[in-house]
C-alpha cells in the first residue's frame, strides 16, 4: 500500500522536464560559444533528488526507498588547470622569442647584407675608387669619383645609423605600450575578480567569468612570466567548484615568484608595471618599476593603467621575467650591471660608430702624410661633424676642403709630383690594416663579424620562435581537446536531452491519465 | 584524444600557414637565385658572401689597374723602339760623313736630317698618353724637354708604381734618364754643329760613333728591363683572370641556389599544399547536423 502523495508522479516528471531543459539550454550555450576564444564547454551535473522515505522514526511502511527524480546539481566548465599552466609557460617563451625574432628580423632588413647595396659594397666601391686615383693621380675625374664614393660611404653610415635609431624608438614605444597593455589586463582581471567575488559566496559557479579571467591571464603570460597561487578562502556559502581569487606574481625564467612583485593579491589589490629609461640615454631601459595604479575614482583624467606610486624597483639587468617585454627590452637595449649599454640594437649602433670612428682616424692619419695636387698637405679627408647627431656613424662626413676641391686629395707622397700615386696606394691599404680598437681586425672583417654575429643571433631567435610557437600550438590543441566544443557531441547530447524531455513529458501524461481515471471515471457506477 | 571541429580547422590553418611559409621561401630562392636572403638563413654563407664580394671587387680593380699598366708599357716600348731606329739612322749619317768625301752642301743636308731626328727624339721623350707625359718620372703633367732640348724645370726619374695584386706593385714607366738622357740630345746637337763646320775632319766625326752606340745601348738596356716587366705583367694578368673565375665560382657555389633542387622542392611543397587543401575541404565541411533530419 503506497503512502506517497497523489501528485508524486507529477512532481517527478516536472523535475525531469526542468532538468533536461537546463541541459538543453547549456547545450545551446555551448553551441553558441563554439567559436568564442577562451570558452570552455560546460556540462550540467545531473543528480538524483533525495529518495523517499527518509530515515525517521515514523517513516511509512512501504518498500523504500522510492526515487523522487533528478535535479541539476551544478553547471561546471570542463577545464584542466595543468594544461593552462603549460600553455602559459609556452605562451610566455613564445612571446619572448617572437619579440626578439621580430626585432632581429628588422635589424637584418636594415643591414641588408649580403647584397649589392649594403655598407660592404659601398665600402668596396670606395676602395676601388682610391685605386683608380692611385693609377691616375693627375686625373680630376678619378678624384671626383673618389669624393662621390666617399660621400656614398658616409651616406650609408648615416642611413644605417638613422634607421637603427628609428627602430629603436619604435621598440621603446612597444615597451611602453606593452607595459600599458599589462596594466590594463591587470585592471581587467581585477574587475573580473570583483564580479566573481560577489557571485561565489552565494554558492553559484561563475563559469563564464572564470573563462574570461583565464583568457586575460593567458594574454598576460605573453608579456611577462607569471606565477599563480590559488586561494580558496571565500566567504559565505561557496560551491566546492568555486575558485576564489588567485594571486598573480611576476615570476623569473624558472617560474619562481620575484619578491615584491605581486601584481594581484588574494584581496584583489592590484599593482602595475612601468619602464624607467636611463637619464643619460633615454632609449635604454634602466629600471622596471612596480607600483600602485591610479584609482579610477581619483582625480579625473588620471589614466587607470598608469602607476601612481612606485613600491618596488627592479634593475633592468636583473629583470628576469621572460616574455615579450623582456624580448623587446633585450633587442632595444638596457643598462647592464656595470652601467654600460647592452642589447642588440644599441650594440649594433655602437659597433657601427666604433667602426666609423676607427675608419676615419686610420684614413685621416694616412691622408695627412700625403700631398695634394694643389700643394696642400696635412689635411683630413673625413671629419666628424658633431652637429649631425650622436655617434661617429651619424657624424662621419667628407671634409669640406676635399668636397669642394678634389685636388686636395693627398694622392702623392711627395709634394708637387702630379703623377705620384704612392700615398693613394697606402690609403687603399687602410682597407686591410688591422686596427687595435677593432680587436685587431680590419674594418672589413670587423663588419663581417658583426653581420655573422647578427645572423647567428637571428637564426637562433627564429628557431626558438618557431619551436616555442609550435609547442604552444600543441599545448593549445591539448587544451582544446579537453575544453573545446565539439558540435557533433553537442548535437548528440541535444538529441539525448530532447528525448529525455519528451519521455518525461510522456510520463507526465501517464500520471495525468491515471489521475483522470480516478477523479473523473471512478465511483460513477450505475449513474 | 577528443578532437573537435575547431581543433581540426585550427590545425589545418596552421599547416596551411606552414606550407605557405615554405613555399614563399622556395619562391624567394627561385626568384632571387640565391640560397639565402638574410644572414639568419645561414650566417656562415652570409659572412663568406660579404668576403667573396669584396675579394671579387679587388680582383676586378686589379684587372683595371693591369690594363693601365699595359698602356704605359706598350706606349713606352713603342716610343723607345722608334728612338732606337732614329739613332741608327744618325749613326749611318755620321759614318757616311766621316769619310771626308762629301761636299759642303751634302754635309749641310746630313746636318739638317740629324737635326730633324733630334727634334723627333725630343717629341718622343715628350710622348703623351692619356694626357700623361710618360717619360718624366712622377711629373706627368709637364713635358721632359723644352723645344731647345733642355730638361724642363720639373723633371725626375722616379718610378710610377701601380698595384696589380695584393701587395704587389709593378713599375709602369721606364727610367727616362737612360732612355732619353739630356746628354743624348746635347750629343746630337753637337753633331749638327760639327757637320756644319767646314773645319771638322772625318776623324772628329768618328769620335761621335761610340757616343751614339752608348745612347743606343742605354735604350736597348731599358727596353730589356721593360720587356722583363711586361712578361711579369702577363703572368700576373693570367693569374688575375684565373682568380676572377675562381672567386666567382666559389661565390656562386657558396650562395647561389641549385635551381633544379629548388624547383623540385617547390613542386613537392605544392603537392603537399594541394593535399592539405583537399583534405581540409573534406574534413571541415560535414558535421553531424548534415546527417540529422
From TrEMBL, chain A:
Primary residence: other
Residues of the Flagellar basal-body/hook protein C-terminal domain: 477-520
Taxonomic placement: Bacteria, Bacillati, Bacillota, Bacilli, Bacillales
Annotated keywords: Bacterial flagellum, Cell projection, Cilium, Flagellum, Secreted
Span list, region Disordered: 28-62
Gene: flgK
Name recorded for this polypeptide: Flagellar hook-associated protein 1
Ion transport in keyword set: no
Localization annotation: Bacterial flagellum; Secreted
Domain called Flagellar hook-associated protein FlgK helical: residue spans: 104-382
Similarity remark: Belongs to the flagella basal body rod proteins family.
Keyword Chloroplast attached: no
Domain Flagellar basal body rod protein N-terminal: 10-39
Bias kind Polar residues: ranges: 28-50
